[in-house]
Amino acid sequence: MGTEAAAAVEGKAKPRTLDQQRKRLGLYMTLPAQLLLLFIVAFPLVMQLYVSLTLWSPLDGEDWYYAYKSFTWFYNYIDLVTNERLWDAIGRTVLIMAVVVPVEFLIGFGLATLFVDSFPGKRIFYSILIMPMMIVPAVAGYMFFMIFQSNGPLNQLLGIDTVWLGSPNLAMIAVMVADIWQWTPLMFLILLAGILGVPEDQLKAATLLGASWGQKFVRIVLPRMKTVIVIALVIRAVESFKLFDLMFIMTKGGPGVATETISVWIFKLTFNDLDWSYVAAIGLSILIALSVFAIIGLTVMARASKRMNADVVD
Amino acid sequence: MSSIELVGLTKRFGDLIAVKDLDLMIEDKEFVAILGPSGCGKTTTMNMIAGIEHPTAGQVLFDGVEVQNVSARRRGVGFVFQNYAIFTHISVYKNLSFGLEVTGVPAGEIERRVADMAKLVRLTHRLEWRSSRLNVNELQRLALGRSAILGPQIFLLDEPLSNLDAAFRAEMRTELKHLQHQLQQTMVYVTHDQLEAMSMADHIAIMDLGVLQQFGTPLEVYNKPANLFVANFMGSPSMNLLPCRITDEGGEVVLDFGAGGRLMVEDESLLALCKKAARQDLVYGVRPENVTLRRGEKEGRGLSLGVNFVERIGARSIVHLGETDHEIKVLEGNQSPTKVGETLDAVAHAGASHLFDAQTGVAIR
């Protein structure tokens, strides 16, 4: 009896099965990476939240952890909501997104449909087409900065002397052109992959059933590419929201603040004004806003894909 | 009315000649099978008839009218793909109605015709399903129905049964033949399965390496193969083909099989073939079911060979005799008494022997 009880106690003391042991080992093995990740993600976030609730600036001559001395609760956030410069920057950012993403999508999709069938020189054209994407955005920005100079090649070619980067509306257009030039290739690549994923046999079958090119496109290619299209649009929308390099090099947000996007404004606040607590508040607000959009978007997408995979269709 | 005529049809893919100088006449309402091993050019031929592939040279004529310049979309040819190419992202109903919708048939008529076709291919209870949910047998019927609903006069089927399970394949064979009678269409059927070709087709076109080997009724190609390829390809187990030399021994015609033995030619039809032979080197052919195994036959009346093994496949037994270069197979009954190790005389039935020119492979007739 006694030995049995002892055995039972001992059994209770080490309940670990092989599986549990493995899991524990896994935890130990990944712990360094997890700690690192925690440090990289969580720590800056908490620090950002902390600083954003103060009026701390590096000009104060105090280290950031003494920021509580100028603690102001939500002053930065309230100021932010009423700051027209923010709303203008958001407006411009959204405007750029609303113009460049659809244009890039349409051109990219058009080019992609041309590249489905083979034609002489396809490889060369393909390489040329995706080249802009490979160029460092800062370099591309500088290139367009040169092109759009008042005495630059564009004006010389057209025989006009328009001040592109010096006038608010034209500067916006110039930056959009640069962005479209640089990022249409990405759209093209993603959409081409999507188009090539449409089973060729189904397209042949549709042809033999009498479908025209347009009918095949609408009835087979588009529905089959839904997911790819959404992914391409989301990637570009997010990227264009973060637009910085091109804009900063071409206009620095100018003339005045006429082409200031959110990224450019944050850059100026950070490095010109050194108003870091305010920047922390902006960054956090945008993170939260974008997260909300992302969650809404993902929910919509999940619902759509659930409907697509439903067994019965209407 | 829809006949298909192929004249000098050739298709090259770079250096590869997929189809070479093909002439073929397929009559109206005929069921023709194009039979051959993989890579023989049968699918390419079919694609050229449908207009998916453009011939490098030659013509395709429907009812005597050239159609090379008519796009696939307007040829009005029904086509069933090997993998069915069903539009899996839409419902069964939408698949059936696809051809009608894109050609602008009024809504009311679409509904009626889809209902009729669904009944014919037994998919009425599946109409609302997403078509990706169908099993392979249903997909097959949907593929047929989707093409048939447009009432094409010419129906092309590319190995439509190769993905099906064996039991359903037999059922589908009958059903296809039945469907063809009902729809009164000209059907071209590509297959590598001789059983499908033999059982369904009015005529069989046998192809190899892009070249038409023989065109004839199933019994013709089986009983009178035009060359060694057809002889070897048709029939299971395949025809016994033995290289031999023809010699004359004091007025008697003798076939010398080397180590396999010698055969005095007494069968009159074989004698007639021997006389037509232009060369000495020949290939002698006889189907396994046209050979009888006997004991104690007179020298030279048959080939004396040792039994290697006996395959009992149910209704029949296949007896394997002889050595590598003169190995033969003989079909015997279910209760065959033949045992391994016996030495027996294989005697061909009268009139059942074939002779082929060893060099060209062409049958001597």
Low-confidence stretches of chain A: 1-11
Enumerate how many helices of chain A there are, as a single number: 13
Average pLDDT reading of chain B: 87
Output the radius of gyration of chain A: 27 Å
Task: Give the name of the CATH architecture of the largest domain in chain A.
Answer: Orthogonal Bundle
Portion of residues within helices of chain B? 25-40%
**Sequence of strands across the biggest β-sheet of chain B:** 6-7-8-3-9-10
Q: What about the largest sheet of chain A?
A: none
| SSE string of chain A | HHHHHHHHHHHHH
Query: What is the total domain count of chain A?
Result: 2
Global morphology of chain A: globular
Number of beta strands of chain B: 20
CATH topology grouping of the largest domain in chain B: Rossmann fold
Gyration radius of chain B (Cα, Å) is: 25 Å
**CATH fold-level name of the largest domain in chain A:** MetI-like fold
Account of the protein in words:
Chain A has 314 residues and is mainly α. Chain A has two domains: 43-73 and 282-306, no CATH class; 85-274, MetI-like (MetI-like fold), CATH 1.10.3720.10. In chain A, 74% of the residues lie in helices and 0% in strands. Chain A is built from 13 helices and no strands. Chain A has helices at residues 2-13, 18-52, 75-81, 84-114, 122-134, 137-147, 153-158, 168-196, 200-208, 213-241, 245-250, 262-273, 276-308. Residues 1-11 of chain A have low confidence and may be disordered. By secondary structure, chain B is of the alpha+beta class. Chain B has two domains: 4-86 and 134-233, P-loop containing nucleotide triphosphate hydrolases (Rossmann fold, 3-Layer(aba) Sandwich); 240-357, Nucleic acid-binding proteins (OB fold (Dihydrolipoamide Acetyltransferase, E2P), Beta Barrel), CATH 2.40.50.140. Helix content of chain B is 25%, strand content 33%. In chain B, the strands form four sheets. A six-stranded mixed beta sheet of chain B has the order 6-7-8-3-9-10, sandwiched between helices. In chain B, strands 13-12-11-14-20 form a five-stranded antiparallel beta sheet. In chain B, a hairpin with a 2-residue loop joins strand 11 and strand 12 (252-256). The longest helix of chain B is centred in the middle third of the chain and has 18 residues, at 166-183. The mean pLDDT of chain B is 87. The interface between A and B is medium-sized, with 23 and 32 residues.
